[in-house]
């Protein structure tokens, strides 16, 4: 790992650990006033994806605090953890990682950036690792419902690993992979990609669904603060 990347990764890890830094940013207010229509207003594809990263980091920030409480012995809030798993599966994985894997990465490959042995391969491996963590979180839920403490610990451990993985993963994309895409994809290719993203939003995910993610994220954050 080069020095620049190491520094960047440390920055991102710090940011994840020092979650209070996320407070005071106006991410949610930016995204609530327009009812989720934050895509397609002349944004580049990587800008769209970076805006999604902010939402994912918000959810992970809320989850991290909740998980710290579970590790300290607070019984897990079952409704909360189910909502968190739903958000991570639906928004982070299906919506966001879906756009990367099905649209951005193939476009980058077409532009000559190899899939294996390079950053795209690393990103794909990290998506797969993330899916395993979320799967383990989901699988611990029935045990948690029965009051099994080991299941709560399993949930907390996997949530923490997932958060740490994603924070670093997002840092690599924002600072390395996306700038590479910006540099290698022509303006026409980027425009095409942005319109494919908008199509995914409208036809595959759907407007209602997106609103639901925003509501869910807000809930994940406010439940903790209540
Ligand atoms: Fe990714
Ligand atoms: Fe991403």
Short description:
With 226 residues, the chain is mainly α. Helices cover 81% and strands 0% of the residues. It is built from eight helices and no strands.
Taken from the alpha-carbon principal axes, the silhouette is elongated
Estimated structural class: mainly alpha
Distance between the termini: 42 Å
Name the CATH class.
Mainly Alpha
The description of the largest β-sheet is:
none
Tally of DSSP helical segments: 8
- Under the CATH scheme, the architecture is Up-down Bundle
- Could you say which small molecules are bound to this protein? fe (ii) ion
SSE sequence, one letter per element: HHHHHHHH
Summed over residues and divided by their number, the pLDDT gives a mean of 82
- The total count of strands amounts to 0
Give the low-pLDDT segments: 1-40
Number of domains: 1
Looking at CATH, the homologous superfamily is nmb1532 protein domain like
**CATH-defined topology:** Four Helix Bundle (Hemerythrin (Met), subunit A)
Percent helix, as a range, is over 70%
- Share in β-strands: under 5%
Radius of gyration: 18 Å
């Amino acid at each position: 790992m080069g020095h620049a990347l190491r520094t960047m990764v440390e920055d991102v890890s710090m940011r994840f650990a020092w979650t209070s830094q996320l407070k005071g940013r106006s991410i949610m207010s930016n995204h609530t006033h327009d009812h989720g229509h934050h895509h397609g207003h002349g944004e580049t594809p990587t800008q769209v994806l970076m805006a999604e990263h902010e939402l994912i980091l918000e959810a992970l920030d809320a989850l991290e605090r909740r998980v710290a409480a579970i590790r300290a012995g607070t019984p897990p809030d079952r409704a909360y953890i189910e909502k968190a798993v739903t958000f991570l599966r639906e928004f982070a994985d299906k919506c966001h990682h879906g756009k990367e894997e099905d649209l951005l990465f193939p476009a980058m490959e077409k532009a000559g950036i190899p899939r294996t042995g390079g950053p795209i391969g690393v990103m794909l491996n990290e998506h797969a690792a993330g899916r395993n963590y979320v799967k383990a979180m989901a699988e611990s839920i029935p045990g948690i419902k029965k009051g099994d403490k080991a299941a709560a610990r399993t949930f907390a451990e996997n949530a923490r690993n997932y958060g740490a993985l994603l924070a670093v993963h997002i840092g690599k994309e924002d600072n390395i992979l996306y700038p590479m895409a910006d540099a290698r994809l022509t303006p026409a290719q980027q425009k095409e990609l942005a319109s494919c993203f908008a199509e995914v939003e409208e036809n595959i995910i759907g407007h209602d669904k997106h609103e639901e993610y925003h509501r869910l994220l807000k809930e994940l954050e406010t439940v903790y603060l209540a």
